[in-house]
Amino acid sequence: MIGVLFSGGKDSSLALSKALKKGKNVYLISLISKNPYSYMFHTPNIQLVKKQAKAIGLPLIIKKTKGEKEKELEDLKKVLIKAKEKYKIRVLYSGAIESNYQKERIEKICKDVGLICHNPLWKKPKEKLLEDYKKEKINAIITGIFAWPFGKEVLGENFLKCIEIFEKNKINVFGEGGEFETTVLDANFFKKRIKILEYEIEGEENSWVYRIKKVKLEKK
After folding, report:
1. How confident is the model at residue 212 (pLDDT cuts 50, 70, 90)?
2. Domain ranges of the chain
3. What is the CATH number of domain 2-219?
């Protein structure tokens, strides 16, 4: 059994696509943080993972956390123990690309609970990853932007369309410094696509969030 640490964003979705190529017995594992500034976990529109799991057609294991620095790791450990004991998961995939902070902590917890940790995107060349996002037709929209000189104008845009402008402004194209966040609405492995019905934009200056309030699943 394979578990995928799933946030609903572009990177965990790409990691999921690689896990699905290894076997059909895949579980999504999501941590929902009450702290919007969690050090470990994606937070914008994290509640959408339930709809995403349904659209993909995979079982979802959810664990809530207060999102307190380092303490939130205990919640990750608890859900991984449950995943191993109840669902017989033996391997955990993560979407880590360049963040040592996340990668090292996930690997340590996996070692502590007896899981194999696999980070299929880790340190892959930019061109290769961008090619993979395109190949898997991952429709990831920008749902959080936290970097100068950007404002709310990029919210709702497909992240692949923003690569050139990110590079021009010397922004990490994968948002590894927390410059932006994404939410995935469709991909090759989705059985249904997600359509946004209601949303609201909140923020000021160079910090904006696109909050998805209502969606529906559509046939593809």
Report:
1. very high
2. 2-219
3. 3.40.50.620
